[in-house]
Amino acid sequence: FSAAGVLLLAEAGKLRLDDPLVLHFPGAPASWHRIRVHHLLSHTSGLKDYSDDEIDLRKDYTEEELVRLAMRTPLEFEPGTQWSYSNTGYMVLGLLTSKLAGMHWSEFLRERVFLPTGMRTTAVISEAEIVKHRAAGYERGKDGELRNQEWVSPTMNRLADGALYFSIKDLAAWDRTLAR
Q: Which of 76, 82, 92 is nearest to 20 (CA)?
């Protein structure tokens, strides 16, 4: 869905898929001069996937702080030469979408994707809101026991690397839209 938002921005002429990241993030490190928007979309940017070592998942950040943290992320390989899943890349795409759309990426998707396709329950994650029929996340502890997933900050739960709730009805609506 984050990728769909970026494609809508490209269709509207707000960016090109060949744009270097530095065009949209002045002051980015030299390594970002070689990264194009399409590299982020296809997980070929070389940006290392962020971890608890680089980002405190329990801390709230501003979008500017997240951009600075992403800019410190080293490249694992030359952009376009390999594939490696990167939450960092999609976090940056969300920040780029927010910047170019003039609203949070999730609100842009709500206006341009979710509502027009009939996806009425899809929303960005909120730990504070009561969400009817919400499924809880689980993880295995070091002892192998299943437990509730550890909490992350509201900021980290609102990034474009996977911070949306969906219902099966909404996913069916999306599928119908794609089939048209």
A: 92
